[in-house]
Amino acid sequence: MAVVSAKKMLLKATEGKYAVGAFNVTNIVQMKAVIEAAQGKRAPLILQTSVAPVRFLGVKVLVAAYRALAEAASVPICLHLDHCTDVTLCKAAADAGYTNIMIDASKEEFEANVRVTKAVTDYCHALGDVTVEGELGTVCGVEDQIKVTEDEAALCDPGKAEEFVRRSGIDLFAPAIGTAHGVYKTKNPKLRFDLLQEVFKVLNGAEPTVPLVIHGGTGLQDDVVRRLVACGGCKFNVSTELKHTLIDATYGYISTHRDEYNPGRLDDAVSKATIQMVERWIDVLGCAGKAG
Ligand code: 13P
């Protein structure tokens, strides 16, 4: 039985100075492939879905697939709802069996962000072991239904981090530090490592209590990822790269097998490509062998 919630897994990562990969999947083939990669590497894993797959497949289907696969797996695995702005959907996902929920009220003013986030935290905590992620500042770019323009993007105010976490009651904290969703326009995006360090010191200086989440993994250089982990990031979100891998592998396979009508082989091609890319991330994040 490897169905777990996120906080304990991530506090362990914070202590061990590695990060757990949180991979956004859109279908069951990807879900199975990501789990296979984590098992092969003996790595703890966070599976994520954004709101679009939830609306398409429904929470019950996604939770049923997750439970069947995670219960048979030998590594601990969470199921996280990513960037949900809809409180009702957050609650429905928690009710259905998502182990971790991100309520994204980061576009709201501080007080409204606290209020909306707390409503979800109170609900999830009353259910038992369902943990909640909240965001302060806004991450630039496009992630599913979330669109933040460069003008709207705002960094986390480290002076407000402790108050936000305390008053909202969240378990995991995502500070906006300059990373972005989607493909980076430059090879060297301006990231505020100092800000991440400051937030880490405020929240986890005495002892690890609030795991920190890094959004916008796709496209970051390996050394940048390692530096963000060294500064205290312990949940690392990757989404766009999985979508590109799925589409590129599908297109590549079909282009070279134009007369073949065997969906199983196409699934195999997508699965192999996904396993390879997730294994690479696991190595960079340093979480291989940390499942035990
Ligand atoms: P990317 O799509 O840039 O990998 O970002 C993923 C993410 O932060 C999901 O929350």
Instruction: Report the bound ligands by name, code or SMILES.
Output: 1,3-dihydroxyacetonephosphate
What's the level 1 CATH class?
Alpha Beta
Tally of discrete structural domains: 1
Mean pLDDT: 95
> Distance between termini?
13 Å
Gross geometry: globular
CATH architectural label: Alpha-Beta Barrel
Residue windows where pLDDT falls under 50 for at least 5 positions:
none
What is the β-strand count?
Answer: 11
Give an overview of the whole structure.
With 292 residues, this protein is of the alpha/beta class. It has one domain (6-285): Aldolase class I (TIM Barrel, Alpha-Beta Barrel). Helices cover 50% and strands 17% of the residues. The protein contains eleven helices and eleven strands. It has helices spanning 6-16, 28-41, 51-57, 59-72, 87-96, 110-127, 158-168, 193-204, 222-230, 240-256, 263-285; strands spanning 20-24, 45-49, 77-84, 100-103, 131-136, 140-143, 146-148, 172-175, 180-181, 212-214, 233-238. It has an eight-stranded parallel β-sheet, sandwiched between helices. Strands 7-6-9 form a three-stranded mixed β-sheet, with no helix packed on it. Helix 5 (87-96) packs parallel to helix 6 and helix 7 (158-168) crosses helix 8 (193-204). 1,3-dihydroxyacetonephosphate binds next to strand 3, strand 11 and helix 10.
